[in-house]
Amino acid sequence: MTPALDPMPTDWTTALAVVAHPDDMEYGASGAVAAWTDGGRSVSYLLITAGEAGIDSMDPDEAGPLRADEQEAACAAVGVRDLEILDHPDGVLTYGLELRRDIARSIRRVRPELVVTLNHRESFGPGRLNMADHVVTGQATIDAVRDAGNRWVFRDLLDDEGLEPWGGVRWVAVANSPQATHAQDLSERDVERAVASLAAHRAYLDALGPGPMSDPGAFLRNLFTARGGDPLMTFELLPM
């Protein structure tokens, strides 16, 4: 039997999504974002890289700005107005203090109650191994939540940048985790906006060639209904 999922919490107003690449949020999580922004909540995005190494047929110097533009359009489709893209190198992210500091900086700036990141587990399920950038970003995000609340960690964020500690993060929600615990119900409008957000990554999807991503609508609708019943997006919710 498929275990029942608890509903995502609703008693929050501000969220920050931290992912490695343009398009990471659009593989399902943007459907939940659409529901949240429609409900009056504020969601900001922090991308660790510009995804410049993601298109084999395009030089990174060209791909990075193009993918950033596509991410802007994807954000607009689901009501996200605050997008920050860092310049860590795509494809070769390493876990370390610099990455934790950069994420902690954004957490202190946005002051979210909910932090969303992509699956950092070993796999996405049987036969679907995860990639290093996702693993590194997810673990660094969880650690940076704690860093952001400790005034004695990364003291330059306060002393030099005036960013007060923020210990108000109550949960980290891990999208597409194989250990899902919670779900966000989606309306047809949420699904349509999620499809529009994924379709905004047109150059990236076209470069993938024929396959499941040739039809973003079918891909997401299958994802959202994979557990049967009405559309929903699943998360592993980690209380902080």
Can you characterise this structure?
- With 240 residues, the chain is α/β, with parallel strands linked by helices.
- The chain has eight helices and eight strands.
- It starts with 5 loop residues before the first strand and ends with a strand.
- It has a single domain, classed as LmbE-like (Rossmann fold), CATH 3.40.50.
- It has an eight-stranded mixed sheet with strand order 1-7-8-6-5-2-3-4, sandwiched between helices.
- The protein is globular and about 50 Å long.
- Helix 2 (60-77) packs antiparallel against helix 6.
- Helix 2 (60-77) links the parallel strand 3 and strand 4 (82-85).
Summarize the structure.
With 240 residues, the chain is α/β, with parallel strands linked by helices. The protein has helices at 29-38, 60-77, 97-110, 132-148, 156-159, 188-199, 202-208, 216-224; strands spanning 6-7, 14-19, 42-47, 82-85, 114-118, 171-175, 182-185, 232-239.
